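Hey, I was hoping to borrow your eyes for a little while. I'm sending you its amino acid sequence along with the backbone structure tokens. Take your time with it, there's no hurry, and the full record follows here.
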Amino acid sequence: MSLVSDMAIDLGTAHTLVFVKGKGILLDEPSVVATTEDGKDVLAIGSEARDMIGRNPGNIRVIKPLKDGVIAHFDATKKMLRHFMAKASGGKALLRPRVIISIPSGITNVEKHAVIDATINAGAKEAYLIEEPVAAAIGAGLPVQEPIGNMIINIGSGTTEVAIVSLGGLVVSKSIRIGGDAMDDAIIRHLRREYNFMIGERTAEQIKMEVGSAYPLPEQLIGVKGRDLSTGLPKMLEVPSKEIYAALQESVREIVSAARNVLEETPPDLVSDIIERGLVMTGGGSLLRGFSTLLSEKLSIPVVVAEQPMLATVTGAGKALDELDTLKKVLFTKKY
């Protein structure tokens, strides 16, 4: 009996998720690789590597192989994919699987080929690419194969994808390289500028999750641990949530603008569908407090967050595995 199973992979800037056909989502790990200083030896991958961020000595490099949804470090990506594919299969796969990878809709052909090459090098027999908004829409349960306008916004760590999906494809789409990471960076910059106070990426993400919002909400105070840059010493700082709200506004405005642009370019018949059916939000960024309320106000359409927004893309790519043979004509691949 063959021990190989086809896989779907949501290769994200912050997290990689692996769906194994017939078994479901078997892996959700940070997209992080720790190597020796020269990059030759891998010391840790995934959660273990993420725990080293900000704590690693000079002889250990901690790499995020993907930036803004695309491959920034090819070799590290290849090693990370090989590790995750083996881990998801329980280390028992004897044959090379067919793999579907979700990608941002706005990446170039060169970037697409890089993802395909990394996946084949990691052990796949065949590799196919599915655009994130299509995968997310499938995973959110939208009737993407029907002649109906489905509007989806997928806010990931590195990119935000906004699209109108109908008859199995993208009618209008926009991909911007702004997402959760840009919001974290905005918080870091704000605290440094206003308080001469330095925090790390993980602290910024925690602040965003606890008190960040896209819409004005009741005031809260959050205690933040970091370094006072004027003394170089550790310090606890109390920050009002309204300042975090203000720091996030630039990223939020760009995402709202992208959604507005997609609606403006949508054919009238599909716009009528969107007015009736609304917009579905997926991705970790959709969990930012008040974001669905803000989008509904700014776009004048109903907005809902998918039931499991962070799993929608990999779930949709996993469902596409069941129709891989019929979808081959519309999925991007590369001949070897």
About this structure: The first strand starts at residue 7 and ends at 11. The chain is about 35% helix and 25% strand. The chain has a mean pLDDT of 92.
